[in-house]
Amino acid sequence: MKLYSHRQAPNPFRVTLFLAEKGVKVNTAYVDFMHGELKADEFKAINPFQRLPVLVLEDGTAISESCAICRYIEEMNPLKPLLGQTAKDRALIEMWNRRADLGLLNEVAQVFRHTNPAMAPLEQPQVKEWGEANRPKALATLAIFDAQLASNRFVAGDRYSIADITLFAAINFARVIKLQVPEELGNLRRWYSMMTERPGVQAALQVMKETSSA
């Protein structure tokens, strides 16, 4: 297998977190989308949507979308399940994972893509007003997760899951738009501190640190 990833982007980082937690190592190639590498014919043949990450299997099958990649990794490595073990668990994890993905990571991404001048060549048209409109939405979503974590150790209940991975990746990415978890969201801050102590998270952050300085 070969994983096409990125040094800093949040969706590739989600897969890095997932792999680190599962203890799975994959041959990884880092693609620099800021310099047009995603638009090269070679990469478009792998993923016509020109997005990262992409996992290419031994038979040439290309799997894009971070959650689809994580599902494949889970199926091939069922120990330490991160997608749930029962129908109820899987449904709740999927629900909270999508909320973290669409309700926070996407909102942070909209702020970044539409307000950062460096993203102008990739985001056409770049609408600053739309980007700024998503900032209060992201803060409101953080409050919802804080309430959920008031009675749950992890995002989707008592077990660590992909929902925690997506939320952590979103909050970590929010630093690029200078958005931090407010002091009053104590449950979320407690959870984030606990996350940073996990060996898998530390390993993924080390990968990000090493590749960002490569």
Automatic annotation (TrEMBL):
CDD domains in UniProt: GST_C_GTT2_like, GST_N_GTT2_like
GST N-terminal domain spans which residues?
1-81
Q: Where is the GST C-terminal domain?
A: 86-214
Q: Which Pfam families match?
A: GST_C, GST_N
The residues the entry assigns to the signal sequence are none
Q: InterPro entries, per this entry?
A: Glutathione-S-Trfase_C-like, Glutathione-S-Trfase_C_sf, Glutathione_S-Trfase, Glutathione_S-Trfase_N, GST_C, Gtt2-like_C, Gtt2-like_N, Thioredoxin-like_sf
Which family, according to UniProt? Belongs to the GST superfamily.
Q: What is this protein's name?
A: Glutathione S-transferase
